[in-house]
Amino acid sequence: MFKSYDDEKTFQLITAACKVSGLPLETVLEVFGQTWLKFCMDNGYEEMLRTLGGDFTSFVQNLDALHAHLSRTYTKLNYPSFRCETNNDGTLTLHYYSKRSGLYYIVLGVIPQIASVLYNQKATITVDSREEQDIENGILDDHVIFTVKLSKNDGNTTVNNKEDSSTIENNKELVCIRPTFPKQTIIQAKHFCNIFPYHLIFDENFVIKQCGSMIQILLKTKMERGSSLTSLFDLTYPRVDFTLTNLMAFINSAFLMTSVKKRNGHSLVLKGQMRWMPDISHMIFISSPCISSLQELKAMDLYISDIPLYDVTRELILLNQQRMAEMEIA
Questions:
Q1: Which tens digit of pLDDT belongs to each residue from 183-195?
Q2: Domains of the chain, CATH where assigned
Q3: How far apart are CA 134 and CA 255, in angstroms?
Q4: Residue 96: left if φ>0, alpha if ψ -120 to 50, beta else—which one?
Q5: Between β-strands 92-98 and 139-152, what pairing exists: parallel, antiparallel or unpaired?
Q6: What is the DSSP-derived secondary structure letter of residue 318?
Q7: Rounded CA gap, 63 and 77, in Å?
Q8: I need a surface site. Which of 22, 55, 153, 275 has the fewest CB within 10 A?
Q9: 0.70 exceeded by the pTM?
């Protein structure tokens, strides 16, 4: 199960399946997509999949995060990226990006299964357009745009649907609740920068407008007006060119940014989430230091107290240290 096969062998297998079944390539890939969800659920991932999102859209929006998690185990995984937009007519626009050309037919099979099995909905999916897009240094990604229409399921699902009526009702209650927001923020920028010491806000031209306090301290750089994000940090994940178009395309991914300037011979690596703020045309990057051990903490001349109390990075470092100590004792 953990063995990796290159695409050449995969396509040889698909070609053989086409010859034996007499079905065209597109149909074989779509049928594969229809069985993929059941395969994953039958092999230990059912609970993870059922808790990924409270509704279909949330599920799709979090697929990139799931893939990033799985890449720690499946290190050679070359996974696609998904982005979902809600249209005025209630349909969804689904963006699919992949460096593996021609596999998008799998999406046509797996999306209806996700809707039916996990959310008791019927999904009709059609291909709107397909193009090759330059994402990184001339490397072309397959960019396919689908339209997804969701409707109430007739109750017949092709894979066991273990979601009971009480769970469905709870989900309905969550969906019906609409949060309220103040007309204006009551927190000063100074407090925001201290509470979220590893955040950045920048405009469409990558000019930094606001920066967390610890980033400035660690880089020994005051963020003056007009400071350029791309002169201070390199985008190391996703592996795409550092452009606003790419940030928007992979907005559901976890981002890694590495400082150009080094501290004690080590770069500051930040891991976090990008969020576009359309009302002011700015992007906010909420992050944490990408550190998992006391050794890495010391190398950066950092202390645990430099990491906010709410940040799970603290627990990760201490848990890893405890595990290492237990191994030494054993």
A1: 888 899 999 999 9
A2: 15-176 (3.90.1520.10), 189-329 (3.30.450.260)
A3: 19
A4: beta
A5: antiparallel
A6: H
A7: 14
A8: 22
A9: no
